[in-house]
Amino acid sequence: ADRARHALGARTIASRRCPVLFDPRTASVLVGELAGALTGHAQYRKMSFLADPIGRAVAASHLDLHEDPFEPLGLASCGFDSEGIAGTPRAILRQGVVEGLFLSSFSGRKLGMRSTGNADGFYNLRLTSSAASGDWEAMLRMLGTGLVVTEFQGGKTDPASGNWTQAIKGLWVEGGEVAHAVTDVTLAGTMHAMLTGIRAVGLDVERQGAIRTGSILIDDVQVGGRA
Fold first, then answer.
1. What is the distance in angstroms between the CA of the first residue and the CA of the last residue of the chain?
2. Phi and psi for 12 in degrees, rounded to 5?
3. Alpha-carbon gap, residue 181 to 172, rounded angstroms
4. Which of 51, 75, 97, 190 has its CA 20 to 30 A from that of 58?
5. Helix, coil or strand: residue 31
6. What is the bridge-based pairing of β-strands 146-157 and 16-22?
7. Strands 97-98 and 90-94
8. pLDDT digits (tens, 9 = 90+) for 178-218
9. Phi, psi of 92 (to 5 degrees)
10. CB burial of residue 2 (10 Å; 0-12, 13-18, 19+)
């Protein structure tokens, strides 16, 4: 009900570059894009914007991404995949550096590596950050003046280049307070710039399927609105 109420009276804004805060629901989409680029299928087909990623820094240095197939009551918990290979709790990203991929037996052989037990996709993922953050209100104060993204309305990511565009609905924030709802706006950038530009991950954690993350604040994103 609150989300619907806050969307009333939405209007567009002028094109600009500004900080953008993704609420937990939309932030999970960004985490999913990162995980998708680290699958064995994307890697061996050379359709990943993160080519040969093991040991490379691909995101802000305060970020960690962990996978846990044995999380109690996790929506993506499982003892083993459809090939009978067990997963293991592990770091996928540590301080922004890639430590692991999501491999089946087939994709592992293609890459000269062993299966990680991910023939059916990734298990429970949790994005965390060592940078200062807070609850939703604290994240709005950190945003200051900028855009909050509450809904994606259509767009795409080029898997090979990482070019990213999305039409969105959201909120315009001034001085850490919501000023009005926003619609008819697009965001554009590259996944690499967005991942390295993450300033904070909020403590307002929500679970969307296999992914848990708080809101994500990115310092500088191109916003397309009225001319």
1. 32
2. -85, 170
3. 6
4. 75
5. helix
6. parallel
7. antiparallel
8. 999 999 999 999 999 999 999 999 999 999 999 999 999 99
9. -90, -45
10. exposed
